[in-house]
Write a structure and sequence with these properties.
heterodimer; A: alpha/beta; Ribosomal Protein L25, Chain P; 3 domains; six-stranded mixed sheet; B: 329 residues; mainly alpha; globular; binds iron/sulfur cluster
């Protein structure tokens, strides 16, 4: 990496530097996890309308076969993650806490579990943009970084908002997670193929891969693979949370700012995560549905931490059995520690949007059970907030239940709950929780 | 797998390795070198006064907050030490205890305790004794006086509610060098003679306990700034407000008005800028607010010093800055 490039390493203002805790998992190759006896596949595991089940109780399915269809444009199909028999379709616990309609699949133990169902596609470079968008939907692709927003929708920006740049998000700024890092190292060809497909689908001329500078090995691998490709560039950006949030990364890479309340498409940009694009590059040409994903399973409560290929629908209890769980007092987090939700039920399945399973143990958990002091007006939250809000003031208003003032005068709706403010607050004030309550209240009373 | 107790938590699941207690404890540590220097300069009397003031602050906090343990947060000790540092060396201990009581009782508890006070509590205590005991608060004792570790300044143990004895003659007797009994600021203001910067830097001039050595204050302040406990923009803004305005007047009439460097190094400006103005609770949280606040304090200090009846203006300037900090910053 040249000096010039070092100097030009982009970034955004504010943010925090939590300990990364990625070394252990980032150093090991991706491994495959066994199949659980029973998989739980929620119909609503993406943003948008839940899929419609295509199977009945008792029906046999083969791995890769569509078992639920997209219900409208902002929706995707779901493919059987394993060969087996449908046990039932019923309400099951999910990551969001509530029960949700899920397909329960009993896996055939003796089966080799090869993918047995593919939709034949034409050679990728003969596909039209519309065909690519269709194919991306057909393989059930959603944002694998955590948002689980249907990818084909992102790749078809509205006609009145022409886009010219694809930003590829390889930041993985959440502590502990390293699945994107491993994917970049191990599957650069898949990633580049995915990027090319996405560029054609959205009709953009250039793509920039943004990677935090704690993963310079990935930058080097990609730069090497892209030597003869002038349209795609891999660039290092500062390692800082939340570098991987769309607006921050766009600022770091292009210097442009997404208007408040707006979308990247407003300034001609679409953003996709590296994991998603690598999966598109791998699955689309084969006509294969999304049936598994790479998940970082780590944390002090995990005996054998690492990045695992996990069949979708695998209950976290089974994952923990496989990797070894230790500790008696535990906080299970799906995703990263800054924004991932806690789950209470070990039957909760890994879904398309699950990037990590983080097991925080006794000391880490208890350490957080700390006294909440009054706000001492230290201003730490203000200098941490990447949206340049005033979390201290918002927090005080929340206590007084002045929720509408928070939104009208203090830009509550610009807050994307990144957690920088709460992370840094020396008084341990649960700022993000306050903001969530306030937003929920405002939503309810908006009508 | 054994069945663990599962904790459900809100995001974020991790937290920075600091909290209020650690921050406050660090401020206490950083103020200790200044306290130590004052004790080195003024001996037993200073030590006694410090213990009296801090104890009074802690007792007051305990008295008003019997039900929840607020002593553990160290912020009360900070108020005590800072208050002590603003007092003159021979200040009677009972007056110091009263100042501590007022600082915590009126400056903090009345506003609702930690985090709610609009003004810096230490300065409230100091402002109170300034009004109540105008003589005692401006009676100075020579630094490094003879026998300071074996005997007390005569006024230190004045019985409560009595007037402290006259110490001027005593001061003359024990002083190592000629002692005028006036602070550099007073000398400058009334006689137009500015003390050399070197004396101010090393603290060999008369003044309050914490006004001694600008060098030590600077070092302690820098430590806190580096640990990001204190907002470096505030002292910088205060100085940026002080220096040019002082230089402006100096340029108008160098015979009457002192130069900027003297203004910066003398009196309570250094401790004020680094330790009082930066009190988190009373200062703004937004970057712009912080700069305006600091500049305001600097300029007001110069104006009070040059044109007010008092020789020292830092205290009132900071209180004014606190007051001008809007509730929503
Ligand atoms: S959670 Fe919201 S208020 Fe807090 S730092 Fe993030 S964007 Fe700012
Ligand atoms: S970080 Fe916490 S204590 Fe500091 S100003 Fe913000 S809310 Fe108040």
């Amino acid at each position: 990496m040249g000096l010039l490039q070092q100097l030009r390493r982009g970034s955004f203002r504010h943010g925090i530097h939590p300990p990364a805790n990625k070394q252990v998992t980032a150093a090991q190759p991706i491994r495959r996890l066994a199949f659980a006896e029973r998989l739980v596949i929620p119909l609503g595991q993406h943003i948008g309308r839940p899929s419609r089940a295509l199977v009945r109780k008792g029906q046999e399915v083969v791995r890769g076969q569509p078992i639920a269809a997209a219900d409208g444009f902002v929706s995707v199909p779901i493919h059987a993650p394993a060969t087996g028999r449908i046990h039932d379709i019923r309400l099951m616990p999910t990551a969001r806490g509530e029960l949700s309609e899920s397909i329960v699949l009993d896996v055939y133990k003796a089966d080799t579990q090869e993918v047995r169902w593919r939709e034949p596609v034409a050679a990728p470079n003969t596909l039209t943009p519309e065909q690519i968008v269709q194919a991306v939907q057909a393989i059930g692709m959603v944002g694998l970084g955590g948002a689980a927003f249907p990818s084909h929708v992102k790749l078809s920006p509205p006609d009145d908002k022409p886009v010219d740049t694809l930003v590829v998000n390889g930041c993985e700024c959440e502590p502990y997670l390293s699945c994107d890092h491993r994917v970049m190292l191990e599957r650069p060809r898949d990633l580049i193929r995915g990027i090319e497909l996405a560029m054609r689908a959205a009709g953009v001329e250039r793509a920039i891969i943004g990677i935090e500078d704690n993963k310079l090995d990935a930058v080097a691998v990609l730069q090497d693979a892209l030597r003869d490709n002038p349209c795609i560039r891999a660039r290092a950006v500062e390692t800082k949370y939340p570098q991987g949030s769309e607006k921050m990364l766009i600022k770091s890479l292009t210097g442009q700012e997404v208007p408040a309340g707006g979308l990247p498409a407003d300034i001609g940009i679409i953003v996709n995560n590296v994991g998603t694009l690598a999966a598109i590059g791998r699955l689309l040409p084969r006509g294969e549905g999304l049936t598994e994903r790479v998940v970082t399973v780590t944390g002090p409560g995990v005996a054998r931490p690492g990045n695992y290929i996990v069949p979708l629908g695998t209950p976290i209890g089974f994952v923990l059995q496989q990797v070894g769980h230790q500790g008696t007092h535990t906080d299970f987090v799906l995703g990263g520690p800054m924004m991932g939700p806690s789950v209470s039920d070990l039957r909760t399945p890994i879904t398309k949007g699950t990037s990590g399973l983080l097991v925080l143990n006794d000391s880490e958990v208890l350490k957080e059970t700390r006294r909440i002091w009054p706000c001492i007006k230290c201003g730490q939250c203000v200098s941490a907030c990447p949206m340049h809000l005033n979390p201290a003031q918002l927090g005080q208003l929340a206590v007084k239940r002045e929720f509408t003032r928070m939104a009208d005068e203090y830009h509550l709706n610009d807050c994307f709950e990144c957690g920088c403010c709460a992370y840094t607050c020396p008084s341990n004030i649960p700022l993000v929780q306050h903001f969530r309550v306030a937003k929920a209240y405002n939503r309810e009373h908006a009508a | 797998m054994s069945k663990p107790t599962i904790e459900l938590r809100a995001t974020p699941h991790i937290h920075a390795p600091h909290d209020v207690v650690k921050i406050m404890r660090n401020v206490v540590f950083a103020s200790l070198p200044m306290a130590a220097w004052s004790i080195w300069s003024y001996g037993l009397s200073a030590l006694l006064l410090m213990l009296a003031v801090v104890a009074s602050c802690l007792l007051t906090e305990r008295l008003f907050n019997r039900h929840n343990n607020t002593l553990g947060d160290w912020s009360t000790s900070i108020t005590g030490i800072l208050l002590f540092l603003t007092l003159p060396p021979g200040f009677p201990a009972w007056m110091g205890m009263l100042a501590g009581f007022i600082a915590i009782g009126m400056g903090k508890v009345m506003f609702g305790g930690l985090g709610m006070n609009v003004f810096n509590p230490a300065l409230i205590g100091r402002a109170f004794v300034q009004a109540a005991f105008p003589v005692a608060i401006t009676t100075w004792i020579p630094a490094f006086f003879e026998g300071r570790f074996t005997r007390l300044i005569p006024s230190t143990l004045t019985p409560p509610f009595t007037i402290p004895p006259e110490t001027a003659a005593w001061s003359q007797q024990v002083a190592v060098d000629a002692f005028t009994g006036a602070t550099p600021l007073a000398v400058q203001k009334f006689d137009h003679v500015a003390a050399p910067a070197l004396h101010l830097l090393t603290g060999t001039t008369a003044g309050s306990l914490g006004e001694g050595s600008a060098l030590i204050i600077l070092a302690c302040g820098l430590y806190l700034a580096l640990r990001r406990i204190l907002d470096w923009r505030i002292p910088l803004a205060v100085m940026a407000g002080t220096w040019p305005s002082a230089e402006l007047f100096h340029w108008i009439d160098p015979g009457v008005y002192p130069d900027g460097l003297f203004m910066l190094l003398s009196g309570g400006l250094m401790p004020g800028a680094w330790f009082m103005a930066t009190d988190m609770v009373g200062s703004p949280v937004t970057p712009r607010g912080v700069v305006i606040y600091g500049l305001l304090i600097g300029i007001v200090t110069v104006v009070i010093r040059l044109f007010g009846g008092l020789t020292e203006g830092v205290m009132y300037a900071i209180l004014l800055g606190n007051a001008a900090t809007p509730p929503d910053r």
